[in-house]
Design a protein that fits this description.
By secondary structure, this protein is an alpha/beta fold. It has a single domain, classed as Thiamin diphosphate (ThDP)-binding fold, Pyr/PP domains (Rossmann fold, 3-Layer(aba) Sandwich), CATH 3.40.50.970. It contains eleven helices and eight strands. An eight-stranded mixed sheet has the order 2-1-3-4-6-5-7-8, sandwiched between helices. Helix 1 (2-8) runs parallel beside helix 7 (154-165) and helix 3 (45-58) packs parallel to helix 5 (80-89). The longest helix is centred in the last third of the chain and has 26 residues, at 240-265.
């Protein structure tokens, strides 16, 4: 959060729904972020941000950044209707999904961002369905900017925040943040786990502009999926066949990203 706000600057207002981030930012009307913070209901973040944006524009403050800081539960699931509507309208807001792949604030239950086979409080034998591809869904709305980022690659994150700041319209960044308790990661293992997620291809770093132009930001997979999974207690129950199945899915998604990136570089006829 310090890096995001350092890039955005003090002329920023945040909308934060119920989440771990809401607890960190403090009880309304107070804020530990040194910027104004509004806490709406869990399902209404994008709608609240849209209203705040229009109020600022009406009072002559078009350059004030309006951001949303929401978890994956409040983005992929409960808040998706408002988010999709805001994207359809191309509201001029910058939406950050702080993705820790589950409802971690209430006991580590699964969300639609939880990866397949991950063990959670509501899927003790492992989640049966795949993680929702939110970046592709947001890109399908044709918004100006969609990106993924990771706390393990801060230079990439800061560059993307700066780029998004300079764009008008809906901007959406998914930021992978391991939850130590929910993922079963060592107390000093968050950054290592986040880096392994990127370097194994489990969480690739890329950008999508205007819904069609793809840029892959980290092009080498320098560690294995097994090494990434081994850092987390939520995957300790996996069989070799399940790991192979996850690897096949990641390989397929990686090949699709490479294809889309290559197609984006091909001049239109």
């Amino acid at each position: 959060m310090r890096h995001i706000l350092d890039v955005l600057g003090p002329d920023t207002m945040a909308v934060i729904p119920p989440s771990c981030m809401a607890i960190i930012s403090g009880p309304q009307p107070f804020s530990s972020l040194r910027i104004p913070v509004y806490q709406p209901t869990l399902e209404s973040s994008a709608a609240a941000a849209s209203g705040l944006r229009r109020a600022l524009d009406a009072t002559g403050r078009p350059d004030t950044q309006v951001i949303v800081l929401a978890g994956d539960g409040g983005t992929y699931d409960i808040g998706f209707q408002c988010l999709s509507s805001a994207a359809e309208r191309n509201e001029n807001i910058l939406y950050f999904c702080l993705d820790n792949e589950g409802y971690m604030n209430t006991g580590a239950q699964k969300s639609s961002s939880t990866p397949q086979y991950a063990r959670t409080g509501s899927t003790p034998a492992g989640k049966l369905t795949r993680k929702k591809n939110m970046s592709a869904i947001m890109a399908a709305h044709g918004v100006p900017y969609v990106a993924t980022a990771s706390i393990g690659h801060l230079a990439d994150l800061r560059r993307k925040v700066a780029k998004a700041k300079a764009i008008r319209g809906m901007r959406f960044i998914t930021l992978l943040i391991p939850c130590l308790d929910g993922w079963g990661v060592a107390d000093d293992g968050a950054l290592t786990t986040a880096r392994h997620a990127v370097e194994s291809g489990a969480f690739p770093l890329y950008e999508i502009e205007d819904g069609r132009r793809y840029t892959l930001n980290h092009t080498e997979r320098s560690c294995t999926l097994s090494s990434y999974l081994s850092l987390q207690r939520r995957y300790r129950h996996l069989t070799a066949e399940q790991i192979d199945s996850l690897q096949a899915g990641i390989d397929e998604a990686w090949a699709d990203l490479l294809q889309r990136t290559a197609a984006s570089k091909t001049p239109a006829n």
